[in-house]
């Protein structure tokens, strides 16, 4: 039996997810599998939160409509020409790929941070679903300023939803993909229906009426920051920075037959991050005209953003079902990614059980509404933290030979801690996070500079630290 077949049999016993081996050809999937997953994941729970949050940030019509067009295009290009290209060449998970570069000890810290941040993101989507399930129970919906759960009923609802989502994610990529393909069409239809109904409720009769919903923008709501055109462009580009330029979706596209499957992310960006965000913003615009919302504003408070009631007001029970499913289709692949991160730390534990662990952490996070209510800021932060590690992979892939450094250095030399990676990430993070804090610069504005800086520093430090070791390797191999 060949080594390849031995590895394949081991992976099948471990759950068939190929966490520490390239995905074999017979397990690779066509573009349709990714189309459904990305349409489902990105026309999903986050969209019910993000659309309204843009309104709370006082965006103008031009900033929102044109800014989203450009920002989402940049995201698609990042997935297609960076993530999918590298994924289909090596066919490794992000975590195993990084381990080969960083070493076991260093990548363990990254995997832990990555997994926890993904769990928090998934938890916010469980919160979104809970706002729909909670309506029949007449629970008080969380406000933008809320951090703690508001009752036992809320906690029980979140736990029940989290348990179902975790079990789906724990069954592996095939189940996650099938669930997304099944759910996404109804969710997309629901978003479209919500937008059409909201336009009617707002009395929109022409494009001018539609444009005037945002007009030239407004002052941000209490506790929110003002978003300009560049806020929208850069935030929408880097909303999924951890997945594309951060290379997390290596774990997804390693199953793809061709790198061209990266174009399927456009279904998520333009159905989800464009149509759905705008549709959700329209729902919130309707709510802002109600006496309840006006009362909040008159008291100097931001009206709550609760997707369940917003969708229910537009299309009734179908809206509630769509919100629940939307939360699932985001949380499912996010928990799956988090499970892979934890599995890289504890490889002897099956993928099923580490995903259950990830789902449990996500469920606990979902109990606290702060992650969902502060989603714009949280997404910017986790992308800023994780994306520079993707630069390590990208710069090594494209520039290692040209710069004269050894690829997969930790694997080759058996080092467990590649200091070049830590220095590159630590310096870039420190410089640009300090700039953000000291000069009050929005984090999405410094994500790309931090990413480029990290990649460049990695090449420089690798050139310095590898020179002697690489020379010995080359001499020993003739």
UniProtKB/TrEMBL annotation:
GO terms for cellular component: plasma membrane. Keywords: Membrane, Transmembrane, Transmembrane helix. GO terms for molecular function: cytosine transmembrane transporter activity. InterPro entries: CodB (IPR030191). The chain crosses the membrane at residues 61-82, 115-139, 151-170, 182-202, 227-246, 267-290, 310-331, 352-372, 378-395, 415-435, 441-461. PANTHER family: CYTOSINE PERMEASE, CYTOSINE TRANSPORTER CODB. This is Purine-cytosine permease-like protein.
